[in-house]
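Field: sequence (string)
Field: structure_tokens (string)

Example rows 1 and 2, in order.
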Amino acid sequence: MGHNYQPNEVMMEKHRRTLFSRSDEGGSVSVTATLQENGSIELFDHDIGENARRMFGRDDREYVTTVPADETGKLALALIAESYADDSRATVKLRELCEKNGIRFSVFTN
């Protein structure tokens, strides 16, 4: 199972973030998260080299996890709950995160 990005797929992507990247004499490992044009979120794990061969039996391994667009709201809520549980500054931190990443939001105060 592999996912080779085609040029038109790359152009259709809205956002991509590298979550992890490491290279050494044993090879390289990278994990990226991508918000696709259709609203789905994809985590792409790619291992290349001798370390991959030892762990997976081949020197090039791809592993893709996709959360469909209709589940991303639940995913966002779960990540917010895990990130800000028991934090009295949760709303401030969420606003700061949104500002840092160019995400629109609104605030209501009473």
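Row 2 begins here:
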Amino acid sequence: MAYDRKRFESVYPALARDILSHTKTYGTPDKQMDRLELNLQHNTVGGEYIGGMMVINTYAHALGRGLSESEYHQAAKLGWVFEFIYASQIVSEDTKKGNEYRNGNPTWHKMPGIALLSINDSSMLKCTGFLLLKKHFQNNPHYVELVDLLHESSAQAEMGRMLDWTIARREKGDDFNIFTSTNCETIATCMTADFVVRLPILLGLYLADAMTPANLSQTQKVTTPLGQYYHFQNEFLCSSESERSVKQVDWYIKEGRCTWTITQALQCANPCQKETLKDGYGCDNPAKVKNVREIFAELQVHRIFHEYASDLLEKIRKEMAGVDESEGLKRAVFEDLMEVMAKGR
């Protein structure tokens, strides 16, 4: 398993120098260069790197052997391309949500002198990802496909975020029919399954020259339910009654987010319970938020979620067992990923 955080992180300094050297050619003043360097360091270093390391792991499994030093570095560079583009989405997300901390550190927009300039910094992070891709992969026979894949996956992720936030920002009194399982699954698929889970695997397959129609189809079949499971698990926090869980659930309620919990609750609730949900969901009123949470408890949504998650895991395992490894895609890619995800929860 090629999930070695320290080794992956050791590749970063040279890539940061590449970015800074290139942007210096634009005539960027020293003060702004320092700001860019801090942006890169603060927003990309110190995370979990699951996506970036997934690129390397997929590449190694597809080749069916350990990687040479040069092969590892090339795969790590592509992994960092993913990490820079992903970081741009995280910075944008934190700014919109008003999040104060991420990975134990202040979020970028909360740093001194940043505020809404984080929007530009988010765009810069995405641009740096594509600058690195061009510098290190423009001679790769799959360069055009890599560019297209990154753009397409980014568009899918942003579409998921748009759906997520436009539902949460709906006008008070709008029809609650918008809280559907279909919309909930679309958000999870676009934001997590397609971008966070599927994209790094496809990048690794391209690098190994193993991106075939069959492998694309097989990857999609596994990563869609796997990404949904990961998304809903993080969202649901099924450790349930901890103080952190209650705060997280309350935040989703106040924000009026299209979560698995509210879509299931609306399906199970009686008319009286539905009225309580409609009155309090998306409302920044502690008493009404508590009422909604109590309805969730009455409906035993935790039990329903465990049953749903168990069925979804069974589907994932079935799809994994059916993977045809003859064209380079290995079951171990998904097995390793599930192990890493389980450790991260």
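free_text_note (row 2): The mean pLDDT is 91.
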